[in-house]
Amino acid sequence: MTGIVYKSTGSWYTVKSDEGNFVECRIKGKFRMKGIKSTNPIAVGDRVDFELEESNAQITGVINTIQDRKNYIVRKSVNLSKQTHIIASNIDIVFLLVTINNPPTTTSFIDRFLVTAEAYGIEAILVFNKIDTFDEAALDEQLFLQYTYENIGYQCLRVSAQERKGLDKLIDLMKDKVSMFSGHSGVGKSTLVNAIEPTLNLKTKQISESHSQGQHTTTFAEMFDLSFGAKIIDTPGIRGFGVVDMEKEEISGYFPEFFKLKDKCKFNNCLHKEEPKCAIKEALEREEISWSRYNSYLKLLEGDDEHYRTDIYDEDRKNSDKSRG
Fold first, then answer.
1. What is residue 243's three-state secondary structure?
2. pTM of the predicted structure, to 2 decimals
3. What is the dihedral of CA 68, 218, 109, 258, to 10 degrees?
């Protein structure tokens, strides 16, 4: 039988068969022996082949094949630095939820996520959530970020799950597609899914007031069928986003505004750091490229593995302010 993985809890996988039935499945041990360095050999969104088996009057399944993935979103496993974690696979469109405060989303986090989406050929859209909570300073910051990313070519949405603002456009973009919502804990992913499809009634939690950071509500990635012909993958909140499997020479290719200019650099192998006659640095001086984006690029180039694990909100804000000044 063949189906799609709708939920993964580590040892068991909920698979929806092509006939429309949900079956709890486990995997054959050989998957763990194939040299897969991922902490999760099977991800939500995977198409798999499985066989039914009966035990104690219960019918379960055993997954024996993972079909080739169209794409996937992957990050470094936070606890196991040499391993990766596949967040979800076979995605048509990914929505990165961004909040200005409660909790703040940094530009380096946004950029790491966008670089990974570019690398795996997945359309990414920024969703600025909780616009109903903005004071003047937060609104100014949000509009500045939107201006920055729209100039690069990324679509940006402004939404409020609480007040149901901006949801129609979001729903239109999701129709007939497999979408993924991602972002820090507390940015309102589950609340937004509930606003789009109230019958799902996903659990939500309040922001931790002491740290202005979200608490994990969603424990495992899970796919849901929506009433308007869409599928949504709700994912656990991500604290940091470690980029994997990228050579230094290719990183700039995943920054669209750098990619447009790199052929104008004097050297073919220009890393856009100290090299003379670098088109990216010249554009930076002319303020045609954002300093926060260039900063993110340098951090990725340096392979600062520890950086993505730490709270870098303050440093990132200072860089953002610098780029505005």
1. coil
2. 0.81
3. 30
